[in-house]
TrEMBL record, chains A, B:
<dbReference type="InterPro" id="IPR013785">
    <property type="entry name" value="Aldolase_TIM"/>
</dbReference>
<dbReference type="InterPro" id="IPR001754">
    <property type="entry name" value="OMPdeCOase_dom"/>
</dbReference>
<protein>
    <recommendedName>
        <fullName>Orotidine 5'-phosphate decarboxylase</fullName>
        <ecNumber>4.1.1.23</ecNumber>
    </recommendedName>
</protein>
<dbReference type="GO" id="GO:0004590">
    <property type="term" value="F:orotidine-5'-phosphate decarboxylase activity"/>
</dbReference>
<dbReference type="GO" id="GO:0044205">
    <property type="term" value="P:'de novo' UMP biosynthetic process"/>
</dbReference>
<dbReference type="InterPro" id="IPR018089">
    <property type="entry name" value="OMPdecase_AS"/>
</dbReference>
<dbReference type="GO" id="GO:0006207">
    <property type="term" value="P:'de novo' pyrimidine nucleobase biosynthetic process"/>
</dbReference>
<dbReference type="InterPro" id="IPR011995">
    <property type="entry name" value="OMPdecase_type-2"/>
</dbReference>
<keyword id="KW-0210">Decarboxylase</keyword>
<feature type="active site" description="Proton donor">
    <location>
        <position position="98"/>
    </location>
</feature>
<dbReference type="InterPro" id="IPR011060">
    <property type="entry name" value="RibuloseP-bd_barrel"/>
</dbReference>
<keyword id="KW-0456">Lyase</keyword>
<dbReference type="Pfam" id="PF00215">
    <property type="entry name" value="OMPdecase"/>
</dbReference>
<feature type="domain" description="Orotidine 5'-phosphate decarboxylase">
    <location>
        <begin position="19"/>
        <end position="270"/>
    </location>
</feature>
<comment type="pathway">
    <text>Pyrimidine metabolism; UMP biosynthesis via de novo pathway; UMP from orotate: step 2/2.</text>
</comment>
<comment type="similarity">
    <text>Belongs to the OMP decarboxylase family. Type 2 subfamily.</text>
</comment>
<keyword id="KW-0665">Pyrimidine biosynthesis</keyword>
Length: 283, 283
């Protein structure tokens, strides 16, 4: 690792390469579209093509672990190669695993994904706080120690997410308090307080979530915003949702870029086009 | 697969082998205690020793995926062998992965862990509902199709879990409604309604959680209760926590049994002793 905290490395990368995060989602339907077999060889071809197309120009690549795990340990071995190759080419890798557990088990996930020398170590990972934000402490500590980052699920755009994320944490004297999602924001903000240029504890917030939902003003950390393109949000919508937090937002796109494959040049120019649209909309 | 639903297979197994679930947790500290190296060879030796000791007599074995993922794809390959060997010896395998995502990503996790022919397919897996209970539908459907089961995180015993699990889902007219944990129970119960002898959608509920917390009376599904032994609950406490639901409870123990290794006979007799204590306490 470079030694610098993730928030600093991310800020530097976004300044140089723009804010777009491209998802590497080897969905079976996309393998079909690219004329690849639905097996480990197709998975590997797909994922390494993505690395070749994006890793030299795009700030953050986000492989979705589920699509690799679907092929068992051999799929996970492909994921290891994707992480290593993308990082060698200068991209930051945000591995989308949404892990969450307690105590020594959470520490084992931190070992797997955030420790120097682990074959699956990325620059940052997504984590899930159903067991409480505090259950993530072993990962927060390891990330701080190794200059890596976390993106904690806060408020997602799928409609059924509201059943948990909009529930109200009991306030003082049994009064109705903030939502679960806001309490996640607040706890991440407490960890990021005082960090410059940006803290290393990010959040996942859907790009189509209403702005009134959450107060992100004190976060001082990065926001991963899935849902650009295929899920309905355009670059202009991002400003409406995220407002002043927009400079720290990583809009994520997968399907809308990946449908241009398997041609490497076509994939790259599709990603660069989205990246430049985002830059123009943010001006 | 046998073709029978998971709830029926579990009921049959518990009748024959008792209700104990033994966790296979290759924690680094346990590898040290067993005189094994902290590497893939130590992991494999540890996990296959557990299979040899428990799979012929114990109803449910629960490997904790995090401890395998910590060694990357080679660790995941060991996990594949553990699952296959344990199932061949007649145990049910509940793989503790706590996955949770939406749409095609959740479907990919279902493919990985619940589909016939996948190298990581277990009899059941744990899942996390932070993205809403409804986000688990692709896994619920695949489990139903292949005779497998799910254990959805509901209420865990770690103190920081309350920040999410005790939040209140808005009721009618903005009134304060049930807790998030209870809403998970209610949605699982709806899926299990009418199943005999037992539905296939289980829950994870801590063995040290107070009984007043949750109404489990309509669940009609299995409960995984981690926290037996090392985490403080004894067999008698289970009756106090789970009451009438006790017949469907799988008390899970790991550290308290595993500390008797690496001797296979000592491990086996430790597990059988806990199993028999549980049976005596339930009478």
């Amino acid at each position: 690792m470079s030694g610098a905290p993730f928030g600093a490395r991310l800020t530097e990368s976004v300044a140089a390469r723009g804010s777009l995060c491209v998802g590497i989602d080897p969905h079976p339907g996309l393998l079909d579209q690219w004329g690849l077999p639905r097996d480990v060889s197709g998975l590997e071809r797909f994922a390494l093509t993505c690395v070749e197309a994006f890793a030299g120009d795009i700030s953050v690549l986000k492989p979705q672990s589920a699509f690799f795990e679907a092929y068992g340990s051999r799929g996970v071995a492909v994921l290891e190669r994707v992480i290593a190759d993308a990082r060698s080419a200068g991209a930051l890798v945000l591995l989308d695993v949404k892990r969450g557990d307690i105590g020594s088990t959470m520490a084992a996930y931190a070992q797997a994904y955030l420790s120097d020398g682990s074959p699956l170590a990325a620059d940052a990972v997504t984590v899930s706080p159903y067991l409480g934000f505090g259950s993530l402490d072993p990962a927060i500590e390891e990330a701080a120690r190794t200059g890596r980052g976390l993106f904690v699920l806060a408020r997602t755009s799928n409609p059924e997410g509201a059943g948990v994320q909009h529930a109200r944490v009991d306030g003082v004297g049994g009064a109705s308090g903030v939502t679960v999602a806001q309490s996640i924001v607040d706890q991440a903000a407490a960890h990021n307080a005082g960090a410059t240029p940006l803290g290393s504890i990010g959040l996942v917030v859907g790009a189509t979530v209403g702005r009134a939902d959450l107060d992100l003003s004190a976060l001082n950390g990065p926001l991963l915003a899935p849902g650009l393109g295929a899920q309905g949000a355009g670059p202009a919508d991002l400003a409406a949702v995220f407002g002043d937090a927009l400079p720290a937002v990583l809009p994520a796109s997968a399907r809308d870029v990946l449908r241009h494959g398997p041609d490497v040049a076509a994939l790259r120019s599709a990603a660069l086009r989205v990246r430049d649209e985002l830059a123009a909309a943010a001006r």
